[in-house]
Amino acid sequence: MRPIQACLASVLAFGVIAATGACSHDNELVQAADAPIGIETSQLFVTVENKAGIALLDLRVTVLTPGAPYTYIFSRLESGAKKDIQLSSFSSRDGTTLSLRMVRPRGVQVTGTDMVKKQYDVKAPWK
After folding, report:
1. Residue 117 backbone zone (phi > 0: left; psi -120 to 50: alpha; other: beta)
2. Confidence band of 50 (pLDDT split at 50, 70, 90)
């Protein structure tokens, strides 16, 4: 009976460690409520909203996956404006387009600068 109890205890300990590791990984991509760039995800779009109060320039939206990142670049987003970006608009370095059938995104990162050259870097989890 002892070997079975030892086996069950090790499986339980491994499960607790794995769950703790998964939770801490998800906490890395929590978006702040007062973030200057809002990010929303859906099955068809990534929506980026400018909450900075000034126009944003040279925006790079990156869908973070376990493998290669998928990016979409656009030049300007006015203050208070929202932009819906179709998932098929994102591509990896080799030109592969993003498909939720092939990869499972972990999060989204948006970087850019404003009119006075202030840098922005916001991350959000994929929901």
Report:
1. left
2. very high
